Amino acid sequence: MADLTHNDFLNGAVKAWQPAKGYRAGVDPVLLAASLPAKPGQRALELGCGVGVASLCLLARVPGVTVTGLELQEEYAQLARRNAAEAVAAFDVVTGDLTQLPEGLRQQQFDHVFANPPYFQRDRSTAAQDTGRDIAFAGETPLADWVAVAAKRCKPKGYVSFIQRAERLPELISEMGGVLGSLQLLPLIPRAGREAQLVLIRGRKNGRADFRLHEGLVLHQGAQHGSDGEDYAPVIQAVLRDGAALPFPV
């Protein structure tokens, strides 16, 4: 990739090279990483890691965790490796297709498996001009495959976590409910009084607890954006700037 930007996350605790055009990590992977109930000494796998922002944010928040990232697009995987090397982070990046996992990954299980799968269905969206962006936002791999692979690579009693658009929640719950238990849902609401656009959902391998629907988390203060600059709610500000954990208890 010729044109890159070097961007700060978590107030500069995480720095990442990413393409100036194409898929660019924003708030969503940071929120996903902050939602994981990971502990030092545990191992995590990110499916579709892109340039590694979510994984690096997890590593910054929970010292002692080790993370493996799987990325389909070699150019993004190379950037993730570069970002990991510059951060001196315990983050190994593997290039491959989640539906045809490299042999090394097929032999492993993890305490946490997490992903930010493409938000849009290929047959219901217009393809982006940039290939990397198009694959990231509307890839060919069905949600069912993301869920199935995540569940297989998760240890018994481990956790699988996704961030996804609210309209795809019925599909996601159906697929996760078939292979995971103890599902928990946290709606992410742009502003008070509005409908959730994104959701965080977590399941547990061999979990038996009842489904839990948490109170929605409001991301921004005020009824509308009223000035230049940020207006994140204090709890979200703490996540995005200070590297705090998201209030999504197990």
Q: Which secondary structure elements does this structure contain, and how are they paired or packed?
A:
Blueprint (H helix, E strand, L loop, with lengths): L3 E6 L4 E6 L7 H9 L7 E5 L5 H9 L4 E6 L2 H14 L3 E5 L7 H4 L3 E6 L15 H8 L4 H11 E12 L3 H11 L1 E9 L8 E7 L7 E2 L3 E2 L15 H9 L8
Parallel strand pairs: 3-4, 3-6, 4-5, 6-7, 8-10, 8-11
Antiparallel strand pairs: 1-2, 7-9, 8-9
Helix pairs in contact: 1-2, 6-7
Pfam families: MTS
Protein name: tRNA1(Val) (Adenine(37)-N6)-methyltransferase
GO biological process, one term: methylation
What does this protein structure show overall?
The chain has helices spanning 27-35, 53-61, 74-87, 103-106, 131-138, 143-153, 169-179, 234-242; strands at 4-9, 14-19, 43-47, 66-71, 91-95, 110-115, 154-165, 181-189, 198-204, 212-213, 217-218. The strands form two sheets. Strands 3, 4, 5, 6, 7, 8, 9, 10 and 11 form a nine-stranded mixed β-sheet that branches. A two-stranded antiparallel sheet has the order 1-2. It is an alpha/beta fold and 250 residues long. The protein has one domain (4-242): 3-Layer(aba) Sandwich (Rossmann fold). The chain has eight helices and eleven strands. Helix 1 crosses helix 2.
Mean pLDDT: 91
Radius of gyration: 17 Å
If classified by CATH, what would the architecture be? 3-Layer(aba) Sandwich
CATH class: Alpha Beta
CATH topology: Rossmann fold
N- to C-terminal separation?
Answer: 40 Å
- Sketch the topology as an H/E string, one letter per element: EEHEHEHEHEHHEHEEEEH
Strand content: 25-35%
Total domain modules: 1
* Backbone structural class: alpha/beta
Helix segment count? 8
Shape: globular
Largest sheet entry? 9 strands, mixed
Give helix % range: 25-40%
